[in-house]
Design brief:
23 helices, two-stranded parallel ribbon, disordered N terminus, 5 domains, binds zinc ion, mainly alpha
Length: about 500
Amino acid sequence: MYSRVSGWVGTEQGCPILKFADDTIFFSSTREEDLLTLKSVLLVFGHISGLKVNLDKSNIYGINLGQDHLHRLAELLDCKASGWPILYLGLPLGGNPKSGSFWDPVIERISSRLDGWQKTYLSFGGRITLIQSCLTHMPCYFLSLFKIPASVAVRIERLQRDFLWSGAGEGKRDHLVSWDVVCKSKMKGGLGLGRISLRNSALLGKWLWRYPREGSALWHQVILSIYGSHSNGWDANTVVRWSHRCPWKAIAQFFQDFSKFTRFMVGDGERIRFWEDLWWGDQPLGVRFPRLLRVVMDKNIPISSILGSTRPFSWNFNFRHNLSDSEIEDLESLMQSLDHIHLSPSVPNKRSWSLSSSGLFTVKSFFLALSQISGLPSVFPTKLVWNSQVLFKIKSFVWLVAHKKVNTNDMLQLRRPYKALSPDICMLCMKQGETVDHLFLHCPLTMGLWYSLFQLTKIDWVPPRSIFDMLSTNFNGFGSSKRGIVLWQAACIALLWVVWRERNARIF
Ligand SMILES: [Zn+2]
């Protein structure tokens, strides 16, 4: 919350105050009479309201102020002189987010939470749930304001990774699926944990969205005074010439990624640039008609200056010289494509977020879009694994099967030969070696189960080459109704689960 004490004695602009819950910050000049006035106002306030201000427990911090000077002012106010950073609303103000120690509180919180979980035995599915619901979100408060250094992101992801594959305190276990795959979205075969750096970008994008919408807020004013306005008239400039320590410097780096997903909704067209902004079609007109953009006088000219406010449009293009034949062709097609536009002078121009149906920014949509950009598309039986109506721990087991990463004997042979069964043989048929494809598909015993399942459906089934193909194929075994699909998914998963339980029962 931000307010001003009006009629403040001694200063021209008044005394800005930041208040939240039981914390209050006063900003003041260093003039002694200002501080004395502040002190007497606080004392008078205490006498009137009975809410005594405890100066002993208050601190004074200097900005560009010598230590001696700061101590003298502290004596004047009967409070303590302190140094940066300070903790405000749980965030360190004036610290350096680029240094590793700045993030220590976050890492400590995560590790202490993990220690608390050590004693309880958790299934693989349980650990996934805890990571999704808790570990991923714990750093979010810091991540929503500061850019995380790559080294710190690696430290946090290592904590998550070790916990996922071993459970805390169970000793070293195998990391069955690579962390890159785990972080992918569920559509692409991952667990949807997401990279911390991408989550960070998406959270910081929120400030870029809020900036033009909160023009009267104190934080907006501060950023504006440091950076100045972007040539589009909506955002803050992304570069600032002098060096300083301000979270915005890192936030501004995401502007390119962010602005790709914004577009303008034209009202009167006064604050939207005709050539440079995205407001019509799939790309800015300057990108669609580069030859025309090259010859315009003013690239930042607003829509309203070119079209005028009413139909017919005035087409006030202002080119630098007469157009060539090919440029005239471009101009004709441009004018044709704009024929359906209606300007509505009474409606304000708006910026909308193209990734959500409401047109409003969401961190989640930005995060998903950023995750899509990185990494190649791949197919994965997402529906069977995650949409089925079975227990989560069984879903996560099927996820491992689909990745061929359950600990069958062939995997154990590779990883820890001394622990694997010898001879390396399938416990169900006692004939062939145990692989994921054999155990869950080609083993005569399992195959018998699959055949009896397909007999119920009257489908002529030919066993596919791999369990992945099997899970990826849409058989419609019990019809294509919702009930039929749910039933079929459950039946297939039950078959896999039964085989796995039986196999384990025979071994252990
Ligand atoms: Zn077998």
